[in-house]
Design brief:
The protein has helices at 13-23, 45-54, 65-69, 86-95, 110-122, 138-148, 180-183, 188-192, 194-202, 325-342, 355-374, and strands at 2-9, 33-41, 60-62, 76-79, 99-102, 128-130, 155-164, 209-215, 220-222, 228-230, 236-244, 251-259, 267-275, 278-283, 289-295, 300-306, 378-379. By secondary structure, it is of the alpha/beta class. It has a nine-stranded mixed β-sheet. Helix 5 (110-122) packs antiparallel against helix 11 (355-374) and helix 9 packs across helix 11. The relative contact order is 0.16.
Length: 386
């Protein structure tokens, strides 16, 4: 089996999830390629000790990301750092010839994203993708197969959202995601928005325009010393878009929701399509099941399909068992490694977010900021040149 030697820049929560996925690679018996963590990097050297203890493959521990990029042992990089660092670190990674899986939103703003895309254009031999594990859920793959097969008929409406309650407690200390200089003006859109956007964008549902409603609900939080400081970024966002189904040419409304303060939720993704021939209801609250309504011209009956552990990349896990967050992370990494090894995704909806899709999210979120500021419906350009 071929090994791709990775360096991790940023050893927080998602860096640890990647390490866990590497340790579980034996769950994917059909893979011809595997990741091997060779180097880790964080400004806080204590974070590296966890990796050194559980990853026997780690040879290098760095405090400067440039050391990772200059390390000949490293083939590819996973970079999970605050948004204000994306443009600099991603561009330098790409220009160093390292394949890159980066975190959302691929730049703190549109200008930063354009810098990253310029580096990608200069280095077409480097595979660059954005992290988003949502579509790898088996029930979501079931819905994606329906989308690809035209099973919904003419699309009437789409709603996609990512809701969680990580900031529900107003006494939770402030972190970088609530500070404008680190997170950017997008707020929750930059932090969460790629999750609800990933499948619609891959399906070709390109927003023509947007009317945005943004909310800053908890305006102050305690800092590390207990002093109350301003929360500068948006907690919640609802984007009302008009888009077109490329299969039929029909226009329809699409609603995208991103909420960091969502009572009753923990970490919920959902995706609903309503069509003339079929509709779906899916939420990760019931992760193994998708509700499907088919319409034959008379009766309207909802049925529940128990999808089970029917993953895009076959697993040793039995098909009757439940799928979870760590499984989605493992499948996402399989998608990245498969594309790196084979030159293309295993199928349309089992690939990581592309730079083009990340760029579209920036154009949408930039238009959403303008929409909310002026209380207007704003056009969303379909390409960077428009």
């Amino acid at each position: 089996m071929k090994s791709i030697r990775f360096g991790i820049i940023g050893l927080g929560l998602m860096g640890r999830e990647f390490a866990s996925a590497c340790a579980r690679w034996l769950h994917l018996p059909n893979m011809e390629v595997r990741p091997e963590i060779i180097a880790v990097c964080d400004t806080n050297i204590e974070n590296a000790e966890w990796f050194r203890a559980i990853c026997p493959s780690v040879k290098h521990v760095f405090t400067s990301y440039t050391d990772v990029l200059s390390c000949d042992d490293v083939d590819a990089v996973y970079c999970a750092v605050p948004h204000n660092l994306h443009a600099k670190m991603y561009c330098e990674t790409i220009r160093a010839g390292k394949h890159l899986l980066g975190e959302k939103p691929f730049g703190i703003d549109l200008a930063a994203n354009e810098q990253i895309n310029a580096a990608i254009a200069e280095n077409p031999h480097v595979l660059v993708r954005c992290s988003s594990q949502f579509p790898f859920t088996p029930a979501m793959q079931y819905i994606c197969d329906m989308l690809e097969g035209g099973a919904f008929g003419r699309i009437i409406e789409v709603e996609s959202g990512f809701l969680h309650s990580s900031d529900l407690n107003p006494e939770k200390p402030i972190n970088w995601k609530r500070i404008l200089a680190y997170n950017g003006e997008y707020g929750c859109m930059g932090d969460l928005g790629m999750h609800p956007c990933h499948v619609p964008f891959r399906a070709g549902f390109i927003p023509r325009n947007v009317r945005a409603v943004l909310s800053n609900i908890v305006t102050e939080r305690p800092d590390a010393s207990g002093r109350r400081v301003p929360c500068e970024t948006w907690d919640n966002a609802t984007l009302f878009c008009e888009t077109t189904d490329p299969a039929t040419g029909g226009a329809f409304p699409m609603t995208l929701k991103m909420q960091r303060i969502a009572p009753g939720e923990t970490n919920t993704w959902y995706f609903h399509v309503r069509g003339t021939e079929a509709s779906d209801r899916f939420t990760t609250k019931n992760i193994n099941a998708v509700e499907i309504l088919t319409y034959d011209g008379s009766r309207q009956n909802w049925e529940t399909v128990e999808v089970g552990h029917a993953t895009a990349f076959p697993s040793i896990t039995g098909g009757i068992f439940e799928f979870g967050f760590s499984d989605a992370i493992l499948q996402m990494w399989a998608g990245f490694l498969y594309e790196l090894h084979h030159g293309k995704p295993i199928k349309k909806f089992a690939g990581c977010v592309t730079p083009e899709e990340a760029a579209l999210s920036h154009r949408l979120f930039t238009a959403a900021l303008k929409s909310y500021a002026s209380a207007t419906v704003e056009p969303v350009s379909s390409s960077p040149k428009e």
